[in-house]
Automatic annotation (TrEMBL):
SUPFAM superfamilies: DNA breaking-rejoining enzymes. One of its GO terms (molecular function) is DNA binding. Gene3D superfamilies: 1.10.150.130, Intergrase catalytic core. Keywords: DNA integration, DNA recombination, DNA-binding. InterPro entries: CB, DNA_brk_join_enz, Integrase-like_cat_sf, Integrase_recombinase_N, SAM-like_dom, Tyrosine_recombinase_XerCD. It comes from Halobellus clavatus. This is Core-binding (CB) domain-containing protein. It holds the Pfam family Phage_int_SAM_5. The keyword DNA-binding applies. PROSITE patterns: CB. Residues 6-112 form the Core-binding (CB) domain. GO terms for biological process: DNA integration; DNA recombination.
Amino acid sequence: MTPRERTNQSLASSFERYLQDKGKGRGGDGGNYRRNAARELERFAEWAAGDRGADDWTGIVSDDVDRKPTFDDLDERVFREYARHLGGDRGLKQNTVQTYYRYISAWCGWCVNEGYLEAHYAQRASAMAPLPEDDGRKPGDQQAWTSEQRHALTRHVDERARDAVEAYTTLPEDTDPLDKQRARYVALKATRDRALVFVLAYTAVRVGELLRDPNDPRRRGVRWEDLSLDDGSMDVYRKKQQWDAASLPDPVISPLRSYRQLMDPPTEQWPVFPTFDQRTLAELVQDDLADRGERPEAITERRAEYARDLLLALDEDIRPPSITTDGARSILQRLSEAAEIDIDHPKHDYLAPHGGRRGMGEVLVRAFGYTVAARYLDNSEEMVRERYSHIEAGELGDVATEALEQID
């Protein structure tokens, strides 16, 4: 297709190729960026066609023309109008407006390289003029666990796990097998939650590097084979799209070791943090046993021998999926409420996963400076300085106060 022919194409005709180029995994069909970009491109196409926007908005094609918008209809005035639409008509926060416009701008730049457009209209000053100023913050990415919050949460999950393990290990020998299984299940869930909280609180690993992301097939969640408790390290698939070793500090080792001993995974390929969702596990167990040739009646009888399908999965090595990043948020919501932790944050009423990473960053910057913190956080020193600039500002304020006291 020649460049001239491409400019006559509908906007949507380019979306799939663009998303394939930007997607992750085999075939380019994974990744959060692809999902979010697809959503915003669809909204842009609807707006351009007049199907989205103010009541009097009819789209970028004249009323007397009966066709969908094409690339010939795009210029900087169109993107200027869309920036105005994002900033005003949709009532979005200023940072969200900037984020949504960047998806469209990135697609526009790709269209220039592919011959759909002659110029990067979305990046022109006149097109971007209606956009609100970006204050440099990411929406919802500002919570940091304080030392008090971190200690309260880790103390709570540690007490729960200890009580559950003691209740299971001190059962009388003549305890009914199903009751013993129920106690083991409770202990497993409590020790899994404790291990997850300690890892999030002290390793500063991104939750997307630790758990399963349904939108990225490469992020299947860490497995026991990825952990070396003796060396204090864990292999994770980093944000920079490569495997790398993350540190497991001392506070994390004991919860992981105790949890592994209780779980006794049948193989090293088992996820460290498997889902405990009953519906998911029931379907998984039934399908796997059926694939092994078991008849429905036999499967029903086999499941009846276990208090929970997770315990059957452990015995039969039916490997469940890891919990998802959303699952981790649900767990932390439940634990934050149970621990009665005082949380004052405009977006989150619980200790969100990214807050553990950010809180650990604060500790490292204050204790060892930006260079060491950047290495531990797997970020550039420049980015760490930018995100934790309030610490330096506070320290400089103390210096200024001391200077004033000495001079004045």
